[in-house]
Structures
1.
Amino acid sequence: MIETTPSVVVAVGTGVVLATVIGYWVLSRRHGRGRSRESTAESSSDGDADGSSSGLPFPERAETSEDRTIDPRILLPVDGDDDHVLRLVTVACALRHRYGNEPLTLLSTGSEGGSDEGERDRPSITDRIAERGIAAHTAIRTESVETGDLTAEIVRAPPELNTDLLVTKWDLGANEATGGETANEVVAKTPMPIYLFRLARQPSELTRLRLVIPQHVDHHGGFYEAVYNLKQLSARLELPVTVYVFERNVDHYRTLFDLVEIDVRAEFRSVGSWDELESTLETRADSADLLVTLAVREDEIGWDPELRAVANRFERVPPRSVGLCFLRADEPEYEDRFLRTS
C-alpha cells in the first residue's frame, strides 16, 4: 500500500425554514414513494446562464448507520488503460469524504506489472498515481485475482461488507445503458451503487457538472446517497452544477437537493422530454462539461426505458466526458445519513 497522503446553493438559515423543509420531505416520501407524481408548480423557463463470499481480503466495515462522516469504501477495477484509470482514480478520490480514511481499492487480474519482461519494466499503476500526486489524501491498496474474471470476483464479494461503491469505465459503444460486461453483471447481481464514467480529459480540466434526474428517481431509496456523492464530486473538483429535471416544478428538486449535506452552487432547469434535453444540451453544453445521469435498475422506482438509449444520446451532444450513476438498490433506511442534521 502506498500512502499518498463552493459556493452555497441555498442555505437554510432558520429553524422554522428547516422544520418546514424537513416536514415537506417527510410528507413527500410518505405519499410519493412507488406512485407517479404530478407536476404542480408554474412553468420554469429552460436555459442556462452558461451469493458466496469472495476470496478477496476486504475487512468488514466498522462504521454504523449512526456515523456522520460518510466515507465510502470504493472499488475500482483496473482494465489496462492506464491513462483512463488515472482519471477514474481522480474522480474516485473526489467522491470520498475529504476527512475520511477509507482506502481506495484497485482490483486487477494477474500480477501487477505483467507477465513478460516488457510489461514488468512499465511503472505500476500505483507508481504512476504517486508520481502524479492525484491521491494526495487517499490510501491506495491493490488487490489482484488470478482467475482473470473481475466480474465474478466483484459479484461474489458481499457488497454490504466489502464495498460501498464501484467506480468503473463506461463503454458508450455498448447497446445497453450499462455498457460493458462487468458493469452489466454487477448491476444485475448486486445491490451496490455503480458509477460508470468515460472521461475524455483530466478531471481538473472539467468546467461544469450537468446532472440529469429522470422522473420519479427522487422517490428511490438511493437518491440522497447519489446526490450527496455528486455534490461531493462537484465541491472537490470545484464544478458549478446544472440540474435537469423532467418536471415543471424545479423548486421541488431544489428543496430536496438542499436537504442533502454539502453546499454547492447549482441551478435547476426543466425539460419536457429526453428529446428536449438532447436539444438543450446541443446548444447549451460545452465539450469540457461532465454530463451525468442518475439511473436505477429495471423495475425499480424511477426506471425509464429511455435509459437504454442514453449512451446513444450522449454520443450526439457536446460533452465528451459522461457518467451513468446507478443508485444503490432501493434501501430507504440507508438514506438518512446523507441528510442535514441542523
2.
Amino acid sequence: MTRAAGRRGAVRTLLAVATALALATGCSGSGDDKAGSEPAATTAGSAAFPVKLTNAWGTTEVAEKPVRVATVSDGDTDIALALGIVPVITPDAEDGGPVPEYKQQAIDKLGKSKLKTYDDTDGTDYEAVAEAAPDVILGVNTWAMKTDYAKLKPIAPVVTYADKKDADTLTWQERLKIAAKALGLTDKAEQIIAANEKAFTDAAAAHPEFKGRTYTYAVVHPEQITYASYADQDPGVFEGLGLTKAPNAKKYSADKNAVSLENLDELEADVLLITYPFGDNGLVSASELEKNKLFASLKVVKGKHYAVVPSENTLASAVAYPDALSSPWVAQKLTPILADAVAGT
C-alpha cells in the first residue's frame, strides 16, 4: 500500500497516514520557460497511441505520446522524474524549502536546477496547471482526485486510478505502471521496478546479519506513539532488507495502533526504530523517551539495538511512502542505520 499525498514536509505526510503507513512498497517545468516544452523521455518502448485508460470517474484517452506533463502531487512528480520527464508544472511540496536529496539528484540528472511549481497550500491550483498547457496530467498518487478530476479534465487528459479505493491501496509499482502506460514508457517502468528491487536485494545480501531479525517501527505523534509496523501491514522496506515484524505486531492494526507510555514494553524486538517527525511537539521527545524508566529497561534499548530514523532529511517520510524515485535512496540511507542497530553500536 502507498499513500498519495504531497510531501508538505515530513510532518504533514506522517500525520496524515501514519495509521496506514506503507512501509512497503506511493510535472512543473524547470526554472526556465523552455523546460516544459522538452519531449518526454523515449528511452523505453513507446506504446501505440491513442491509449485509453479507465478510471474511477470515467475514461481517459491520450491521443498521442505526451510531451508536456503536469503533476498534481509530490508522488506524481516523483513518478515523472523517475521516468525521465521534467514536468511543466508541479505542486510546491517543499513549501519553498530544500528539495529532498534524491529528488534534487533526479532533477540535476535531467539537466535542470529546479522545477516550476505552484503553491498548493489550498489544494491544486487549476489556473496554474491550465497556464502550463500540459498534454496530460498525472494524478495517480493523490487523495484529492475526487474533487480535482472534474476541474482538471477540461484542461488535459487526467491519468489516475481505476477505483476510488486505489487512492490508498495501490503500491508504488502499480501507480508507476499506470502513469507509464499513458506516457508510452511501459518498458522504462519495468526497468525502474527491477532496479529498485535490486537495490534492496543487494543491500540485504551485503548484510546477512539482518536476515530474520525482528523489528518494531514506531512514530511519535503529538497525540500518541504509533505502532507503525503492525501485523497486517504490507511487507515493506524493512522486510526488503531481511527483517521480520516483532511478535507484538499481532496486537496492533491500522485501527488499533497507539502505544501508551505505560505499555512501552510492547515495542520490544531485536531491533527498535523510532522516528520523531514532530520534534518537541510530539507526545514525547527523543530525550524524554530515553529517560523513561520503562523504555530504558527494554532489552532492545539496553543492548543498544535502538535507533532513530531521521525526519529532517525526509528519510522517515520516504520510509513510510517509498516510490519509484526514492526507494533506492531509502535502501542506501536506511541500511547503515539498521547495521548499527543490529550490531548494538
3.
Amino acid sequence: MNDTTVNIYDNQAYLISIIDLLNKTISQFGLGLIMFMGNIGSVLTCIVFYQPTFHKNPCAMYFLASSFSQFFTFNFSLLTRMIHYGYNIQTLNTSLWYCKTRSYLFYLFIAIPRYNIIFASIDRYFASSRDALRRQWSSSKIAFRLIIGNIFFWCILYIQVIIFYDITTGTCYYQSGAYGMFFSIYISIDSGILPTCLMLVFGLLTLNNVHQTRKRINPGLQPDRTRSIRFGKMSKKDVQFHRMLANQICLFVILNLPNPCYLIYRSSTLYAVKSPLRRTVESFVGNMTYVPIYLGFSLTFANFAISSQIFRQEFIQFIQTKILRRTVASVTRDRIIAVRALRSKDENE
C-alpha cells in the first residue's frame, strides 16, 4: 500500500515537472515570437493608418487606436507573462505593489484594444445603414471622443483590481469571498462573452445592411451591368474596411473563445479542493488560453494586408517613398508601366 502511494506521488511529480517544462518552453519561445511579430505589426499598422489616405476616417481611427494600444499590450502584458511563466521570475507573487500594478495594467491593456475593435464594428454598422441619421454617428469627431472615453472608462473601472488584488498563499490573486465570486463572473463576461457577442451582433447587422444596399440599387439589372455599382453608395475604401473588420472579428472570435471557457470553469471551481497536479494543469491551461489572444493581436497587420488592397498599396508606397527614398511620381510611373505591360501581354495572348 505504501509502495503504491509512493508510486502515485512519483508519477504526479513527474507529470507536474513535464507540464511545468512545457509551460516554460511555450512561454519562452511561443510568446517571444508573438511579441516580436506583434511589435513589428503594431508599428507598421500605425504607420499605414497614419497616412493621408485614411485621415478622418472613423474606422481607420479605431484601427489606429487599437494598434497603438497593442504596442503596450505586447511590451507589458505579454512581456510580464513571459517573464513569469517562461523564466520563473516570481516578483508577481512576492511584491504586493507589483502584483497590484501588473494586474491593473494587464486588464487595462487587454481591454482598450479589444473595445476599439468593437467600436469599429459599431461604426461600420452605422456607416452602412440606409438611415441618414444613423450614418451621422459614423464620424471622426465621435470616434475621437469614444477612443479617449474608452481609455478613461477602463482606467476607472479597473481601479477595483488595485484595491482587491492581494498576495495570498504565495499567489497574486483577487481576494476570496463575495468579491472573488463577483469578479470571477464579471471577468468571464467582460473579457470573453460580451466582446464576442457585440462583435458578432454588429458584424451580422453590418452584413445585413450591405446586403440590403445591394438589393436596393437597381435590382432588375443583370449582374454584368451592375458590377460597377454593386456596392451602391459605398466607396471602395468602405467595402475594404468591411472586409478587414469581418476578418478581424472572425480572428477574434476563434482565438478568444478558449479564454472565457476557462474563466467560467475557474469561477465554478473557485472553492474546490485541488491536488498539486490539478493546480499545475489549470495553471498551464489558463496560461495557454492567453496565448491565442496575444496571437490574434499579433496577426492584425497580416489580416489587414491580406484583406485590403488599399492597405497594401499604402504600405508599399510608404516603403518605396520613405525607406527606399523614391519619389511619389516615380512610384506612380512604375505602376502605370506595370499596368501597360500586363495589358500588352493580354493582347498578345
